[in-house]
Specification:
single chain, ABC transporter involved in vitamin B12 uptake, BtuC, two-stranded antiparallel ribbon, globular, mainly alpha
Length: 330
């Protein structure tokens, strides 16, 4: 009990230190506005990668339309700040807008999840791909939202502090979910869905829950993105965007929180370094995805985790299992 309290205090101190550092970087002018922008893109991409990894990595399904949920969150949050609050109340309205974006994406995900998880196999990939295309087409044809011209008028409410806060929330919730009873049910589905059903795991309910959580954080990322660039249009959330998120998941490693952070950071920075190539830099994403699927399907940290994200009890169990296996092999 005492060690748990100490660990909680250390975690809170680390979070507080990160918050203070992000505030210092934001306000001090120590880094250029360009570097600050890249740091915020990295944070938003970490949220997107972690949320998709929950479905593709931890649960073993294959969703390819994550940008669709990001779009729903971006447009809903923008509607809240521009139409509902009329760009007033500033920082008070922003949390409401972010939560509204996440809730809208989560609600929309039910339309996809409920019919999709009645079947098995690659149907989720087909349905989510279609969903992404439908969302993009709908947004292009709703004139009230700007149609193909896009939606604008949002104040720049996203800053490094907000991005850091939501990154920390995302990591905390997903980490705790993965090591909860629902998380263990999710992992059992990835290993063998038939066996999971036989041991009384409600696989369909678990799948829907995981998918909704994933979509919620995609909507949060969309809300942060919209209030960072202050302009969104349907083309931003095309299949290309979904492909980029997939690359980040499989680059860092499936079934790994640290892998998601690593993949999002490396890929975001790499795209910026390749900016002089112009449109050709967008060839890198699909090409990397093909190469990864052939050479290292699980990614850099695939199915492995940085010990700092593993609960103490889980680490103790793994040590016992390792000792038992070593003794049996002698």
């Amino acid at each position: 009990m005492h060690s748990d309290v100490l660990k909680s205090k250390r975690t809170l101190l680390l979070i507080a230190a990160g918050l203070a550092l992000s505030f210092l970087v934001e306000r001090s002018g120590l880094v250029s506005s360009y570097v600050l922008q890249i740091l915020m893109y990295v944070g938003i991409n970490i949220i997107l990668t972690l949320s998709l990894n929950l479905v593709n990595g931890y649960m073993g399904e294959f969703s390819v339309g994550h940008a669709g949920f990001m779009a729903v969150g971006a447009y809903m949050a923008s509607i809240v700040t521009v139409w509902v609050f009329r760009n007033s109340l500033g920082w008070l309205a922003f949390p409401v807008a972010i939560l509204a974006g996440g809730a809208a994406a989560a609600g929309t995900s039910l339309i996809v999840a409920i019919p999709s998880f009645r079947t098995r196999g690659d149907y989720l990939a087909i349905v989510t791909l279609a969903f992404n295309m439908i969302v993009k087409s709908l947004l292009e044809n709703i004139e009230a939202l700007g149609g193909p011209r896009g939606f604008l008028g949002m104040n720049r409410l996203t800053n490094l502090v907000w991005v850091y806060v939501w990154c920390a929330i995302t990591i905390y919730i997903i980490r705790n979910f993965v090591y909860s009873n629902y998380g263990r049910a999710m992992l059992s589905i990835r290993e063998d869905e038939v066996a999971s059903n036989l041991v009384s795991v409600n696989t369909r309910q678990t799948k829907v829950l995981v998918f909704v959580i994933s979509a919620f954080f995609a909507g949060v990322a969309g809300a942060l993105f919209a209030h960072l660039v202050q302009f969104i249009n349907p083309r931003t959330f095309s299949i290309q965007k979904s492909t980029d998120i997939l690359v980040m998941v499989y680059l860092g490693g499936i079934g790994s929180i640290f892998g998601s952070i690593l993949g999002a950071t490396v890929y975001t920075v790499l795209l910026e370094l390749l900016r002089p190539l112009g449109v050709w830099r967008w060839v890198v994403g699909p090409l990397m995805l093909v190469v990864l699927m052939i050479t290292r399907p699980t990614g850099i940290m695939g199915l492995r985790e940085f010990l700092g994200f593993v609960p103490r009890e889980e680490r103790a169990e793994r040590r016992k299992e390792g000792t038992a296996i070593a003794a049996a092999s002698r």
